[in-house]
Design goal:
The chain is α+β, with helices and mostly antiparallel strands. It has one domain: Jelly Rolls, CATH 2.60.120.10. The strands form 2 sheets. Strands 1, 2, 3, 4, 6, 7, 8, 9 and 10 form a 9-stranded antiparallel β-sheet that branches. Strands 5-11 form a two-stranded antiparallel ribbon. A hairpin with a 2-residue loop joins strand 6 and strand 7. The model has no long low-confidence stretch (mean pLDDT 95). Bound molecules: fe (ii) ion (FE2). The site of fe (ii) ion has 7 residues, from strand 9.
């Protein structure tokens, strides 16, 4: 199950939340949307973009209507990918974007770290979870040492997802995805 762990800036656990409603409310107070979606039909790992979009059409249309996203794509990664470490490292340092970072986990898992005020909100996302990180929020993402996920990405601005790094080393002080996954 997805969960939320709140840390201080040096890696002490302040709170661990496991109930969807509680997580969603806590994140909503921070301007972060967290939802759980259900597919209209079971999808296999090999399902292509068209099939994925069809299975979640209602939620996708609602979200596009609400946020005005201009495009979406479906990305996936497995532990066999020879570039997995390189890809993992790309998102592992604290950064911001001028666009929302919006993901829906069709399969697998990934962990978002949101650095808001003096806390780090660690959101372990799994299959069925939708999360929107507001523009300009300091954050990083860890897909873990054995990345396994398929996700829909939504975009508002072309290239709005390009990372602006903060040069902070805070991401080294908070446990990695592999550790968060087993909490
Ligand atoms: Fe990001």
């Amino acid at each position: 199950m997805s969960h939320l762990v709140v840390y201080d800036e040096v890696g002490n656990v302040l709170e661990l939340l496991k109930e969807y409603e509680t997580i969603s409310k806590k994140l909503s107070d921070l301007g972060v949307r967290f939802e759980r979606w259900k597919a209209d039909n079971e999808l296999s790992w090999d399902a292509g973009q068209e099939e994925v979009v069809k299975a979640y059409k209602e939620d996708i249309d609602r979200i596009i209507g609400e946020f005005g996203f201009k495009s979406l794509d479906v990305v996936s990664l497995t532990p066999e990918n020879p570039k997995k470490d390189e890809l993992r490292n790309m998102f592992l340092k604290e950064h911001t974007h001028s666009d929302f970072e919006v993901r829906f986990f069709v399969d697998g898992s990934g962990t978002f770290y949101l650095h808001i005020d003096d806390k780090v909100y660690v959101v372990f996302c799994e299959k069925g979870d939708f999360i929107s990180v507001p523009a300009n929020t300091k954050h990083w993402f860890d897909m873990g040492s054995k990345p396994f996920f398929k996700a829909i990405r939504f975009f508002l601005i072309p290239d709005g997802w390009v990372a602006q790094f903060t040069d902070s080393d805070i991401s080294t002080k908070i446990p990695e995805h592999d550790e968060i996954a087993i909490l």
